[in-house]
Amino acid sequence: MTRFSQVYEIGNLQRAYRWVLSSSDTRYKNYFRQEYAAYALASAKNLKILHRQMKNGRFMPSHASKIYVPKPSGILRPLSLLTVNDQIAYQACLNLVAEELHKQTQKRQQVTVFYHLYAGKSSPFFYLQWQRSYAVYANAFRDNFVNGFKYVATFDLTAFYDTIDHHVLKVFLQQTGIDPDTTEFLLKNLKHWTEATWSGGGGQPIYHEHGIPQGPAGSGMLSEVVLQHLDIVGDRKSKDVRYLRQEREGASPQADRTGCGGKRNRLVPTGVQDRHSRNHRPRRRNQERQRPPRTSGGSVCDTR
Prior knowledge:
By secondary structure, this protein is mainly α. The chain has 13 helices and 4 strands. The strands form 2 sheets. A two-stranded antiparallel sheet has the order 1-2. The protein has a two-stranded antiparallel sheet with strand order 3-4.
């Protein structure tokens, strides 16, 4: 069980600050280039002030600014722009979540789960490099294909971040080993970071008590607190199903015999073929390095 004092320890705040800056999501970080530069001028002093505020119960989260970014499908993805202090406080909580969650889920890392993998305290990055995990994922796909798994079923959790209920999240966090004080601190802040403003009410904020902020890289780890319960179902042994999860277009959850039809239906990622297939074409170098889109959807059935 964690302790809330671990959240505001200087070492944890420094680590959170480092991981906020080292996030590979440059699209989100580009909104804060000037703020990061200004914060860095006195980062040690700023972190000490943040430490005292959190320790003495005087930390007050700011309401997030919202922007809407078009997705390829045409709908808009809402991004929550948090202040630098809020980003660090949020990441500091998620550091504890990652440590406790890793104890329970490390057996699935790069076996059935290939994204949002915790890199450990000593790493300069919060997550393991997605390129290495995706290479393992593609190999698992090929192995399933060679072993006769020909069909794919994919599932998209629509608006997943926006619909995570805070009461459900509270239960799952406590089951993960997060202490009640840290849980309450995190959920209180999430109410501010996910609120909406009702224009007809004179700008009065509306607190949903559901959703986690899209944009901060650490939100992926918080989503894993919920997603691990899908993975537990995927752990069940079956001769007809293989479960893999990769948060990328073309990732595949499950397939069953009645879902797609055919002799053998399996879960394998879409768009990856056996290396001996005559239709296989090696991807260009710049395509291999491209960051995968942060979605979890794809075709319902792929019979190639």
